[in-house]
UniProtKB/TrEMBL annotation:
Its main location: cytoplasm. The keyword Thylakoid does not apply. Keywords: Cytoplasmic vesicle, Glycoprotein, Protease inhibitor, Secreted, Serine protease inhibitor, Signal. SMART domains: SERPIN. Residues 1-19 form the signal peptide. It holds the Pfam family Serpin. This is Serpin domain-containing protein. It is found in: Cytoplasmic vesicle, Secretory vesicle, Chromaffin granule; Secreted. Transmembrane segments: none annotated. Homodimer.
Amino acid sequence: MSPLLALGLLLAGLCSVHCLPENVVVKDQHRRARVDDHTLTSSNTDFAFSLYKQLALKNPNKNVIFSPLSVSIALAFLSLGARGSTLTEILEGLKFNLTEIQETEIHQGFQHLLQALNRPSNQLQLSVGNAMFVRDQLKLLDKFIEDAHVLYSSEAFPTNFGDPEAAKSLINDYVKNKTQGKIEELFKVLSPRTVLVLVNYIYFKARWKIPFDPKHTEQAEFHVSKNETVEVPMMALGLETPYFRDEELGCTLVELTYTSNDSALFILPDEGKMQDLEAKLIPETLTRWRNSLKPSKIHELYLPKFSIKSNYELIDILSQLGIEKIFADADLSGITGTGDLVVTQVVHGAALDVDEEGTEGAAATGISIERTVLRTTVRFDRPFLIAVVLKDTQSIIFLGKVTNPSQA
Ligand SMILES: *[C@@H]1O[C@H](CO)[C@@H](O)[C@H](O)[C@H]1NC(C)=O
Ligand SMILES: *[C@@H]1O[C@H](CO)[C@@H](O)[C@H](O)[C@H]1NC(C)=O
Ligand SMILES: *[C@@H]1O[C@H](CO)[C@@H](O)[C@H](O)[C@H]1NC(C)=O
Ligand SMILES: *[C@@H]1O[C@H](CO)[C@@H](O)[C@H](O)[C@H]1NC(C)=O
């Protein structure tokens, strides 16, 4: 076996069924809204691959796992409060083409998506949600509160950030609870100057339609690199399932289906071909794969059982993807009506377990926002007066006018 697949895809792959909600749209808006759902899905996929490439680049030879959907939703949620070029940057960074889709359609798209993802199913545990933790004295605009609630189903919790340890526990415990204990410490630190934290969480648990038999799981070699081999529990199964041998990109694909009909796509590049394949990860490649996967008899499928986790701070990576104003020169005036808010952290945690029974995954994204310290600037760049005054006697010992500092 060569090095394992692009794991980041797993959670993206879950989109196959759930990112295209069928029945969530009402009456005559039907056709338009379906188009929007499709645009949303392709933008989210584009963003997923772009983010994957940055994370893989920053974490060479490490496992990569994240939920692109969680990051997309959290940033779209934040964009509710962004204005002007700060807003454009977030939406374009999320790969929306603003000549083709309007801001309100994007938010409606996410609203539909959240409704579709949270529809109860007895074949699948899936929950996706948003929350905001608000400093007691922070006065949010009614419009922001309403949009957060209606479009992003966000709960709001008053929070005393003056006690940062307690605030951190409140947020981390909330996320831990919503992710069934899988994301334990989303925020490692939180500044006492924080005024608002936005959170998205995702929890997913599904069973394979055709499970692996634990009796057939055996220790086997996994080739981390040409040089390095480790022993892993290797599951084994014979089954008929969608399969594609991609000669063009030099990789083999196997899709495993859950009882809910969602699926995980496993992509195995030929030896030494991981980087070439990563470079080709674009939405068109995924579409080509989807059209090429055909049910085939696989006599022996060997897949390691694994459990991986990650923790990322995304400021640098989002800046690479063109989302930078939020961190320095932000216009987040849609949140409070004032122009003094700035994003100070974007943290993401994810965990994914794959075993004989199925898959359990969780992820969360947290965005912390602070007030910028108002900077007072006075620039003496034109003629000015000077008086030197002795403190005790208030005597003026020098008085002058500077009209040209370069003259003697
Ligand atoms: C956005 O869409 C317009 C119209 O469909 C197209 O001409 C343009 O190239 C697109 N821009 C990007 C960056 O894809
Ligand atoms: C999450 O919170 C609910 C309600 O407070 C509680 O009933 C549940 O047991 C908690 N779950 C976990 C995994 O902590
Ligand atoms: C193999 O490992 C050795 C020492 O650990 C290292 O010097 C060498 O560059 C490695 N070769 C390859 C192809 O990675
Ligand atoms: C999954 O797909 C199969 C075949 O199309 C169908 O019979 C079954 O009802 C579907 N299951 C669910 C949970 O949607």
